[in-house]
Structure formats: structure tokens, C-alpha cells
Write a structure and sequence with these properties.
Strand content: 5-15%
Shape: globular
Low-confidence stretches: 277-281, 308-325
Radius of gyration: 21 Å
Number of domains: 2
Largest sheet: 5 strands, antiparallel
Number of strands: 7
Number of helices: 14
């Protein structure tokens, strides 16, 4: 948990330093007075209006204005810390199921632990099927030419998906539409959070056909993920009502956790550019904190499977589609023994 204070508007000390037109020296003092993890987290904290300190600095007007060199210095300082805060596990790195269950097993119910194990299994399988993303922080260090290749491949994949969906029946169920969305993702083996969520749901319903899951999006932010085990009588917009067994299954972000952990663990995506003179450079994928006073959650698609989808083996062989009904309970037992 971050150890820094927020005012009633959700501002950190760095937000307030921008609003009070503090000098670069003041910004350095604020950062130095906090631990390195807290300093990183402050730079990616969205206030209740959705602004980070960096975006507030870019959009604010001051009288008298900052001198250009000092404005640029503060921008680069905040931008550098934002890059550091956005470092997450590589997009192909699997989750450690034993570490995850140890984190929650003292207080979690059997159902919650089972849902966490299922989510972890599905995420790891998804991360073997898809191996790159244009929006993941992994791509912050690639060249512009490599980025353009990713953009082209993703556009082709999405165009093929659009063609597939154009042939869908007007009465097609969400599950049938999901099956039409995933082949292109799997062929090109890349996607952003939308594609990763689609593939994770396809894998989920193949492996655990009776699990109910939903695709969620962050409104006023940019991220999508799946949720399993949500109480159907709960308010879709309020994670606090989702029940004790609801689990976030974020294949793109590489995270599975109880829904009540959303304020601590959910991140939203945004592209940032740092100004330098008359130009804007470089472009970077930044992950921002989730602020429930600004960001809103909404169920995009609800799935209610009653039978398995057509197997993924038609696309990738039996290794992907091999199913074991007792897998999650067995994994849970082994995880608890460690």
C-alpha cells in the first residue's frame, strides 16, 4: 500500500506542487522525502478529476508562467518517475500460483481460492498463446520501426476479426461472437487488453465451461479485463458489492486478485508524450492508478456458458484444449501444501 496522503480532491503533494507553481527544487525535495516506491506511485496517481501531476502541469496555465527550461525539467522529472512506476512483469511471464494463494489463503474462502487458481491458470495459458502487445510497457524500449510493425500486425488482426463478425448471425450469442473474435488474435499472437481478455475468456470457457464470467471496461480510463464469480445481484459499477468470491482476471496486466483489491491493484493505460521545445517525444505506455472517484467500471459483455465452446484444438492442437474437470481443485490442494 502506498504511504502518502491525498487531499479531498485526490491530490498528492506533487499535484499540489504543480498547482502552487513550485520550483524544480521543491519537486526534488518532495520526492526525496518519500520512499522510492511511494515517489513512483505519486507520479501515476490520478486525482478526482483524472489528472496526474504531469498532465496537470502540461494543461495548467500559470501567471507568471514557468520559464521554459524549468517547465521542461519538471516534465522530464515526473515523466521519468512515471516510466519507472509503469514497470510490470513482462507480458509473457507466467503468474506464480503458489505465491498468489499464499497471499490470500489465510482469509479467503475455498470458493475464492478456487476462482483465483482458475484465473491464474487461464492467464498463464493466455500468455503462452499471445506474446506481444502494442500498448504494454514492454514496448517502451523498442524502436519506432518495431512499433510500426506491431501497429500494422494489430490492424490486420482487427480487420480480420471485423470480417469474421460480419458473417455472424444476427441472433448469435455472446459466446458465439467470442469464438469469431479470437482466431485472428491467435494467428498473429498479439493484442492489447481487449484481445488478451477475449482470448482469456475463450480459454476459460474451454477449460471451465460452467464458470460464469464477464468482460469489464474502465470508463474514463483505458483498460479491459475479465471478472469471474461476481454476485449477479450486485451493482456492476461498484466493485465493493461484487461479493467475496469475485476475482479480476487480467491477462494483459498479468494479475489475478479478489475484486476488493481493485483500488490497490487495478491500473489503467494511457499514452504519454513529454514536450521538448516544439516537439513531442518520446511516446510511452504508462500505467496509471485506478481512482474510484474518477474512473468507473462497467460490464461490457456477460457470458453465461452452459456447455463448452468448440475446442481450441482446431486452431492450436490438443495441448491447448486438453481439459481436466478436477484441475482447479487439484491445483488448489497442491498450492495450499506449499
Amino acid at each position: 500500500m502506498p504511504n502518502f496522503t491525498l487531499d479531498n480532491e485526490g491530490n498528492t503533494e506533487l499535484h499540489l506542487a504543480v498547482l502552487q507553481r513550485k520550483s524544480i527544487h521543491d519537486f526534488l525535495l518532495i520526492i526525496a522525502s518519500h520512499s522510492f516506491p511511494d515517489a513512483l506511485a505519486m507520479t501515476t496517481t490520478c486525482n478526482n478529476a483524472g489528472y496526474t501531476p504531469h498532465s496537470l502541469l502540461i494543461l495548467s496555465t500559470f501567471e507568471p508562467p514557468y520559464q521554459a527550461d524549468e517547465h521542461g525539467q519538471i516534465c522530464r522529472l515526473l515523466f521519468g518517475f512515471m516510466l519507472g512506476s509503469s514497470q510490470i512483469a513482462p507480458i509473457t511471464q507466467p503468474l506464480n500460483i503458489h505465491e498468489m494463494t499464499r497471499e490470500y489463503q489465510e482469509s479467503a474462502s475455498e470458493t475464492l481460492l478456487r476462482n483465483l487458481v482458475i484465473a491464474t491458470e487461464v492467464i498463464n495459458r493466455t500468455r503462452r498463446l499471445l506474446i506481444s502487445s502494442m500498448t504494454h510497457p514492454d514496448t517502451n524500449c523498442i524502436t519506432p520501426e518495431e512499433r510500426m510493425v506491431l501497429v500494422s500486425r494489430l490492424n490486420i488482426s482487427r480487420n480480420l476479426t471485423t470480417i469474421n463478425l460480419a458473417h455472424a448471425s444476427t441472433t448469435a450469442s455472446p459466446l458465439e461472437l467470442l469464438r469469431l473474435k479470437t482466431p485472428a488474435h491467435l494467428i498473429f499472437r498479439l493484442g492489447n487488453c481487449n484481445e488478451y481478455t477475449n482470448v482469456s475468456l475463450q480459454v476459460l470457457f474451454q477449460e471451465y465451461p460452467h464458470v460464469r464470467a464477464e468482460k469489464f471496461i474502465v470508463i474514463y480510463g483505458d483498460h479491459g479485463f475479465a471478472v469471474i464469480g461476481r454476485d449477479q445481484n450486485s451493482d456492476q459499477h461498484d466493485y465493493r458489492t461484487w461479493g467475496p468470491n469475485a476475482v479480476v482476471m487480467d491477462a494483459w496486466g498479468g494479475a489475478a486478485y479478489p475484486a476488493y483489491k481493485i483500488p490497490d491493484k487495478l491500473r489503467t493505460y494511457q499514452v504519454y508524450q513529454i514536450p521538448e521545445g516544439e516537439r513531442l517525444y518520446p511516446m510511452a505506455n504508462i500505467l496509471l492508478s485506478f481512482n474510484p472517484h474518477y474512473h468507473k467500471l462497467a460490464c461490457d459483455i456477460a457470458y453465461q456458458p452452459v456447455a463448452p465452446l468448440s475446442t481450441l484444438s482446431s486452431l492450436f492442437g490438443n495441448k491447448v484444449a486438453n481439459k481436466n474437470e478436477n484441475k482447479a481443485p487439484n491445483r488448489l490442494k497442491r498450492a495450499r501444501m506449499t
